[in-house]
Specification:
It contains 8 helices and 2 strands, in the order ααααββαααα. The protein has helices spanning about 5-10, 15-30, 35-40, 45-60, 75-95, 100-110, 120-135, 135-145, and strands at about 60-65, 70. It has a two-stranded antiparallel sheet. α2 crosses α5 (about 75-95), α3 (about 35-40) crosses α4 (about 45-60) and α7 crosses α8 (about 135-145). The longest helix has 24 residues, at about 75-95.
Amino acid sequence: MLTGKQAHLKDLTPSHEHYLRAIFEVRSSRGYARVTDVAHLLGIAPPTLSVGLKPLEARGLLQHDDHRFLLLTPQGERVAREVHHRHAVVRAFLREILGRADEGAEQEACLLEHDVSPRTVERLVDLLKLLREDRELRDFFQARFNDYQRRCRVAEACESCDLGCLPVR
């Protein structure tokens, strides 16, 4: 069961999570975060970001300092770190395991980071670490996976995965 604080954070939109992660990343690299810097990173207009930050301020996740720099509250930083972690893990999985190119992996990680469960993230970390630490297993897996091509035929049910196969386009 979610506690009051957890339930309150559960309804953050993907945009809000992106804003928190972007503030965290800009502050981590520059030591400060201005609305213009965060908006630039997100590819949106500063006024759009300013409007989008208001709910985060109302929830106590974000503040401004005396110089109007964006500051994450302790709770806001915790959420931003969690989103950043999920994003980094999903992006690494897409790149290292599935072989997605950097741009595609980045875009898909931005989509998936909001819906992947903490347990799945931890298992993805386990898989990534295992393959990074065990070179022989990684080389074997990569060679097999790169050569593997499923041979499904369009059917109502699939004998190997219990899913109806779609035509390859």
